[in-house]
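During the reporting period the student researcher (J.K.) took over the structure-prediction task from the postdoctoral fellow and processed the backlog of single-chain submissions. One of the processed entries is reproduced below for the supervisory committee.
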Amino acid sequence: MIKPPPFLLAASLLLWGWYSGFIVAAVGMALALESARIFRLRWELSRRDFERIADLCSIGFASALAFQFVQSRHFPDSLLSALIWLPMLFFALLLAQRYSTLGRVPLSALFWSLRKRRDDSRAEQALPLDYAYFCLSLLAASSANPRTSWFFPQICVLGLYALWPAAPKRKTRTTWALAFIAAIGVAFALQAGLLRAQTHLEELVFEWLASRWNPPADPYHSRTAIGDIGELKGSDRIVMRVNAGDRRPPATLRAATYNMYAAGTWSAPAQLFTAVPVTGESWDLAAGTGESVGLSAWMDGERALLALPLGTFRLESLNVAGMQRNTFGVVRVDEAPDMVVFGARYDPQHALDAPPDPTDLNLPSTVRPALGMVASEISLPEDDPQAASQAIAEFFGSRFKYSLALANAVGTARSLNQFLLEDRRGHCEYFATATVLLLRYAGIPARYATGYAVQEWSPLEHQYVIRKRHAHAWALAWLDGHWQELDTTPGVWAEEEKASASSLQPLLDLLSLFNYRLTLWQHSDPTHGGQSVTMLSVAGVLALYLAWRIWRRRRVHVPGSAALAMHASLAVSDPRIADLLEQLKRLGYERPLCAPLLSWAATLPLTDVEVRGTLQATIRSYYRTRFDPDGATAEEEQFFVRKMRALLEQLSAASADGASVARQA
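J.K. obtained the following C-alpha cells:
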C-alpha cells in the first residue's frame, strides 16, 4: 500500500476551496487533518462507529443532492452542485481515520453488503482512504468549473506529487518523471480533441433533428385552438397564487392575446417582442399609477409567458434574466427559476395593448351567416357600442349553458355554428370566441384573451389560489377609447368545476403548500440569513452529536510517530497475518496496542531458535509484500505463503504438546 506524501490532502483541499469559494472551510479542514501529525491522541473506534460515520456522510450527500434537485429541478445541475460539496460531506469519515487507533476505514463502512455477512473475512479488512479523498477533492474542484489556464497545471503538479512515492528507485526516477510529463501532454491533447469532437457531434445531431423534425410553430403561444383550455379543466394543480391584501384582486390574469380567427383557431401573427428595461429591482413596462398585487407562479420552462392583470405597467422583485413584451401587452421572461414571486402594479383603465387595427374587425366567411342570425335574434345595435356589448352579455347569460361535455356522438369536436344555433352550451372558449366575433359584427374592435380567473380564496394559505382548471378565455373590447374586458361565460362555471374536484384535493393542497413554502425558503435572499442559519443549525447539531459519540470512546496516547502507529495497526486487520497473531495469543503472547509487529516479535521469549528465525523472516516477507512501493513479485508472494504455512504448523504443534515453545518467566 502506497503511503501518501506529507500534506497532499491539505494541498488538494486548498485547491478545492480556492475554486469552489469555500477557502475558509478548506483551511480549517486542512489544519484538522494535518494536526494528526502533531497531536498523539487517538480514539479506539469500533467497526460499528465507522459504519455510523459513513452512513451519516452518505445521508448528507443524498440530502445535498435532493436539496439541489428541488432547488434547480434539473438533475445535471443539481448533481454538479452536490459534487462541489463532496469534500465537506465526507470529511468526517477521513477525520475518523486520521484520529483512530486503527488508522484505516473498515470495508464494512463502505459497503452495505459486507455488514450483512459478518462471517465474510472481507468485512474485517480495512483500507486507508487518503488517495480516494484526494481524488474526491480534485473532482469537487473540477465541478466548480474553474475557467482558468492555471487549473490544469495545478492538477498535474498535484498528481505528480501524489504518485511520486510509487515511482521506481532513484536511478530510474528521471525516466519515470519524463514518462509522466509525456502522459500529461497526451491527456491535454486528448481532452482538447474530445471537446472539439463533442462540439462537432452536437452540431451534427442538431442538423439531423432539424432536417427530420419541424418544431411547433407556436413556441410562445402565438396560436390557440378551441378546446386547448378545456383540456386543462380537469386538473386541480395549483399553478399561481395571488395576494391582494385587503383589496379586491383582479378578476382575471391575462397570459396571451389573439386577433385572427380561422377554422377554430386563434392566432397572433407578426408579433415581435421588444426588450423591457430594468431599473434596480423593477421592470418598467410603462409609466403609470395604480393598484398593486403580489403574484407567485410556477414556470413551465426557462422562457415562459406571465399571467398578469390588464394594464400592468410595472413588475417588482422579479428574478429573471430578461423580459420582453409585444404590442398586445403579452409579457415573456427569460431564464426564469422554477417559481417566480413578484409584485405587479396595474391600472385596468389604461391597458398597454396597441390600439385596434383593421384586423380587429375581421370576420371569417364561414361564421358570418350564423352571426347575422344571432344579431337579428337579439336586435344587436350597430351604432351604440356600449348597448351592443351589454346586449351580447345578456344574450349569453340568459340563453346559454356552461358545459365541458362537448363532443358529438361520433367523437368529433363541435363547431362554433353548432354552439350559436343548435344546443347553445359550451365552455369559456366558445363563449369568448362568439363574443369577440359578435362584437366585430357590431363594428366594435375586439380581441381574444386567455389566462386565468381569480376566484378561489384559500383559508389555509390566506390568499387566492389559481388551479389549472381555472384557465379561462374572455373578450377584449375597444370601448370608450380603451380596451376593456368582457367575460360572457355564465358565472356558474366555477362552481360546476369545483363540484367535480377530486376528494383528495385537501391533501394535495397541503402538499402543494409545503412545496410552495419550501421553494420560498430556497429562493430567499441568502443575505437575510434564513437559509444559512437553517443549514448551519442542522449541520451543527449533527456534528455535535457525532463528536459526542466519538468523545465517549476510549482515548489512547500513541507513543512514537502517528505513521508508525498506523503501520502497526495495518497488520492487525490484515487477514494474512490475523491467524498468526491469534496463534501467538493462544500461546500467551498478545501483541500490545500499536506495537510495531517486527519489533514486538523480536522481544518474544521463544526458546526454539528455529521458530524465532522463521517468525522474523515471515514478518519481513510480509512487510515486503505489504508495504514495498514497487509492489511484490509473484515469487515473493509465494515465498511469504510458504513461510506463513510453515510457521503456523510449528506454532500449532507447539500449542498442542507444549514442548517446542516454552514461555520464560
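The committee noted the following: The radius of gyration is 38 Å.
J.K. will present the remaining backlog at the next meeting.
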